[in-house]
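Hey team,

Filing this mostly as a record. A colleague (T.K.) asked me to run one chain through the structure pipeline before their review meeting, and I want the input and output archived in the tracker in case anyone asks later how it was produced. No errors, nothing strange. Just documentation.

Input sequence:
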Amino acid sequence: MDPGRADLIIFDCDGVLVDSELLSCRCLSEVLAEFGFELGLEQALGLFLGRSTAAIGQYYRERGQILPGEFLPRLKARVLEIFTRSLRPIPGVGAVVSELKAPFCVASSSDLDRVSLSLNVTGLASHFGDRLYTAQMVQHGKPAPDLFLYAAGKMRADPARALVIEDSVSGVQAAKAAGMTVWGFVGGSHYRGRDGRAILSAAGADRVFAHMDDFWKEA
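Output structure:
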């Protein structure tokens, strides 16, 4: 799909707009360790990349383990601290959104306050305004299609005419389940040393690219 002809372009936030995935998964691994749960960085990336915090609790419940009530508040505080100090935008993404003529928005598995912080810290907030949709707003998060369909509904766009930019398997699967075109983006630091192109292609991405400079170059 030519992005210039899409009725709507939906950006994931983490790993697409901001280079946050390594930071957030490192925070997750460290905070889990503080409560006696061992989960390495690579495991965290494999299990929870593109997933909501609800998925973390569900994962442990299915294994007969219950995370303490203080876990999520402590994780949230750690992420906000690290993001405020270290978060950076994906190189070139500001230029891409500045040139878009089609309507566009964010649809993220992260909580709304984290998305807002991420965009403010990286100077991207003014591009998106209040067009921020998160997993908190729907019953089922990615890989279910609910969030993308919700965003399309709010933006009054035909899902079949929507283009999604995603960096995770669950995000690609969600977009395809919603009947949308999806491009996989593998330019985040979490894909260094990993074959992101193969990973997202296998998940069903219609195109995979690694640099925002290539956004306008049709594969």
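Quick notes for T.K.: The radius of gyration is 16 Å. The chain has a mean pLDDT of 94.
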